[in-house]
Design brief:
The chain is built from 11 helices and 2 strands. The longest helix is centred in the N-terminal third of the chain and has 26 residues. By secondary structure, the chain is mainly alpha-helical. The radius of gyration is 22 Å and the shape is elongated. A two-stranded antiparallel ribbon has the order 1-2. A hairpin with a 6-residue loop joins strand 1 and strand 2. 65% of the residues lie in helices and 2% in strands.
Length: 246
């Protein structure tokens, strides 16, 4: 028997749903929550009926946008955990989460002001986020890089607060600096004392350390040449993408 032809209808439906979600994120971010579904449909390049087939109401679409945002944060948490030491992974993820949430302030504010949230789908995604955040926090605390008297709920509230502060700051660089200063309060004793012990031997100087401008992690600085601003290539690339608006 010949293989069944691909279901092009389902593929088209998935593509249209993705188009609507992308357009909705941009519309809610730029125009606020009062934007109409018909305006979102025009921005997505689909008919209004297509939007309603996937999202029968604006509340359904808002939930889908929020679920996508939270799932992106969960993926980011797992990526940081896999690619960086515990303390750097924790603070690197926080900066990325704050950066992404600041850009979606209108949608994120809805969850904190409307008592009907979270809806079932968002609650499930939120549970995954809490687990991923708790794992990052626990690893960083065990490494001594984050103070022991805070929990995942505290950190989640701080992410929301820092995202609001960054979005409210008129100067982008200034907003980033204020966020970094706020996150400094989370650091544990290892972040303060590590790397300052003198090396053995005559004439040896203590290791010079500095903080990454992107994730805030400490790293050993070069004693000659141009001072390094980032702890590695990942943070350097993230900073370049942020500056270029990509």
């Amino acid at each position: 028997m010949a293989p069944a032809p691909p279901d092009t209808g389902r593929a088209d439906a998935r593509r249209n749903r993705t188009k609507v979600l992308v357009a909705a994120v941009q519309a809610f971010t730029v125009q606020g929550l009062d934007v109409s579904l018909s305006a979102i449909a025009r921005q997505a390049g689909v008919g209004t009926g297509t939007v309603y087939r996937h999202f029968p109401s604006k509340e359904t679409l808002l939930e889908a946008v929020l679920v996508q945002h939270v799932e992106d944060l969960v993926a980011a948490a797992r990526r940081w955990a896999a690619q960086a030491p515990p303390t750097a992974a924790f603070f690197g993820f926080l900066l990325e989460a704050i950066d992404k949430s600041a850009g979606r302030r209108h949608v994120c504010d809805l969850v904190t002001t409307d008592t009907s949230w979270p809806r079932p789908m968002l609650a499930a995604s939120g549970h995954q986020f809490q687990q991923a955040l708790a794992e990052l926090l626990r690893a960083a605390q065990q490494a001594g890089g984050v103070r022991a008297d805070i929990g995942p709920d505290d950190v989640a509230v701080l992410i929301v607060g820092c995202a609001t502060m960054r979005a409210a700051h008129r100067d982008s660089a200034g907003g980033v600096r204020m966020v970094q200063l706020a996150l400094e309060g989370l650091r544990g004793p290892a972040s303060v004392t590590e790397g300052h012990a003198f090396r053995d031997g005559p004439g040896r100087r203590p290791a010079m350390r500095t903080r990454c401008e992107e994730c805030g992690a400490e790293f050993e600085a070069k004693t000659a040449g141009r001072p390094a601003r980032y702890c590695g290539a990942t943070c350097r690339q993230r900073a370049h993408r942020r500056r270029s608006g990509r």
